[in-house]
């Protein structure tokens, strides 16, 4: 329902702009992570679990996803708004990573790799990676934070905020 609602809003906005002869750009966000993210999402789940000394389960380790640091996404959105780009613009890294590798990197930073349990769920989509050509070529955005640095910052935020403040 959520995806259908987003797609419907995009189509309505696009039609509105077409009727009014306005330019239209729609940022389609993919998998974001970063400081302050809802704890039930994948990265905070893994980070907080490992930092609290619990085992964490990666339920779809071989699935390939496209994760982007939220601060990079914010910059990409601003650049999209300031550009002449039109249409649907994928806001993503375009860099594939397996969920198992993402968990493993989080475990490495937290020094808790032994607490990661990798599983597979073949009912989930196996590959979701964005085509970011328009983001690179029309918006001219190609300034991504290194994944390890972004995970470091995110994990540090969780150490300072969630774990110290309950």
TrEMBL record:
Database matches in SUPFAM superfamilies: NAD(P)-binding Rossmann-fold domains
Gene3D superfamilies, per the entry: NAD(P)-binding Rossmann-like Domain
Coiled-coil intervals, chain numbering: none
InterPro entries in alphabetical order: Epimerase_deHydtase, NAD(P)-bd_dom_sf
Every NAD-dependent epimerase/dehydratase domain range: 2-92
Family: Belongs to the NAD(P)-dependent epimerase/dehydratase family.
Name of the molecule in the record: NAD-dependent epimerase/dehydratase family protein
Classification of source organism: Bacteria, Bacillati, Bacillota, Clostridia, Peptostreptococcales
């Amino acid at each position: 329902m959520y995806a259908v609602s987003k797609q419907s809003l995009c189509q309505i906005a696009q039609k509105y702009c077409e009727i009014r002869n306005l330019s239209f750009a729609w940022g389609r966000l993919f998998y974001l992570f970063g400081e302050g993210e809802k704890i039930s999402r994948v990265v905070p789940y893994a980070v907080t679990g490992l930092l609290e000394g619990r085992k964490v389960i990666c339920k779809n380790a071989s699935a390939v996803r496209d994760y982007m640091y939220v601060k990079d996404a914010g910059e990409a959105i601003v650049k999209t708004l300031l550009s002449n780009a039109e249409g649907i613009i994928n806001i993503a890294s375009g860099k594939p990573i397996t969920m198992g590798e993402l968990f493993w990197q989080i475990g490495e930073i937290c020094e808790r790799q032994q607490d990661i349990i990798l599983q597979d769920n073949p009912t989930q989509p196996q590959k979701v990676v964005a085509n970011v050509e328009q983001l690179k070529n029309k918006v001219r955005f190609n300034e991504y934070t290194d994944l390890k640095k972004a995970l470091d910052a995110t994990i540090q935020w969780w150490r300072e905020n969630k774990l110290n403040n309950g």
